[in-house]
Write a structure and sequence with these properties.
The complex is a heterodimer of chains A (194) and B (120). With 194 residues, chain A is mainly alpha-helical. Chain A has helices spanning 2-16, 25-45, 56-80, 85-96, 100-112, 116-147, 152-164, 167-180. The longest helix of chain B has 27 residues, at 91-117. Classes of the chains: A mainly alpha (194), B mainly alpha (120).
């Protein structure tokens, strides 16, 4: 918590003293989303061993448990708060995406010991392969729907392609396939992700 | 070698994201609207509750049940704000929610750890 406050505080100070303009925040976001995050997620999913997903009920609970809050938040955002499709998808992501590797590892290791790392690995798999891609597809559908016409099917298809083109989507998916086929880099159980 | 290369840049994701979060939050009034309230309660309370419920439903006990429960209790990832910022969509709300979720997690994670210890 303190390290988090420290780094956020540095960002606030940088903006306050005009060292780095608040308007350049999107540039940092571009760096994170297009470079650092895809590789962080890749590092996370490469740690998966086929054994990690053998425990069916555990993996099922993780998938459903992470995605139910996503679905509920999306529904509330869209139907009750009247947000746009993209806004609702990002709201859902905020409600359902735990900061696993960063805040999660210390908490889980402290509370349940090394097996806690498994939760991070499986959780990362769900967020990297299901949650983030789904969010990007929804955001793209929202963006596309706002600008061009055309059939719903075509729009969804195009949005899918646009989302899959993002390294943050395809890199972890390829990594998962490789890891499940038994390709492993040198073991690094502390690879950070989010 | 490859893993180390990925690790080197991947590690910067969390730090750079937090720094950018500070930039976005600058000049934003500290507020609590319905979006932030929903997001934080869903993340910090709703998600661990759902995961615990599913664990019990699926007959998962002991350490794995505790892991699932605690995973849900972890605050929002900064990556969500970065995606919001990149698409210039929901960026202010995402940043504010992430901050409140993280600060609030000091209380909710502590409670979750205490509760988890009671899980047989």
């Amino acid at each position: 918590m303190l390290p988090v406050a420290f780094v956020v505080g540095l960002g606030l100070l940088a903006a306050h003293f005009g060292i780095i303009a608040k308007t350049s925040a999107p540039m940092f976001a571009d760096f994170v989303v297009r470079f650092a995050l895809p590789l962080a997620l890749l590092g996370g999913v490469l740690n998966i061993s086929p054994a990690a997903i053998e425990n069916g009920p555990y993996v099922l609970a993780m998938i459903v448990g992470l995605m139910i809050p996503y679905a509920v938040a999306f529904g509330v955002g869209k139907a009750i708060f009247r947000h746009s499709l993209g806004e609702s998808a990002l709201q859902a992501l905020v409600c359902a995406f735990p900061s696993m590797a960063y805040s999660g590892l210390p908490v889980l290791e402290a509370a349940v010991g090394p097996p806690g790392v498994l939760a991070v690995v499986v959780g990362n798999l769900v967020t990297s392969v299901i949650m983030i891609p789904l969010t990007l597809v929804l955001v793209q559908v929202g963006l596309g729907g706002a600008t061009v016409g055309g059939g719903t099917g075509a729009l969804v298809g195009r949005s899918l392609i646009d989302a899959v083109k993002q390294p943050v989507v395809w890199l972890p998916i390829i990594g998962t396939v490789l890891a499940l086929c038994g390709v492993h880099p040198r073991k690094c159980s502390r690879c950070p992700s989010t | 070698m490859l893993a180390l290369s990925f690790d080197l840049i991947g590690k910067s994701a969390a730090g750079v994201a937090l720094f950018a979060l500070g930039l976005i939050l600058y000049g934003q009034r500290l507020r609590m609207d319905r979006d932030i309230a929903l997001n934080v309660s869903m993340k910090n309370i709703g998600q661990p509750a759902v995961l615990l419920g599913l664990a019990l439903l699926l007959g998962i006990h002991d350490a794995p049940a505790r892991e699932l429960f605690l995973t849900g209790a972890i605050p929002t990832a900064t990556a969500a704000s970065m995606l919001a910022l990149r698409y210039r969509t929901y960026a202010d709300e995402a940043a504010a929610s992430t901050l409140v979720s993280t600060v609030g997690s000091v209380v909710t994670i502590t409670l979750a750890i205490i509760l988890a210890e009671g899980l047989a």
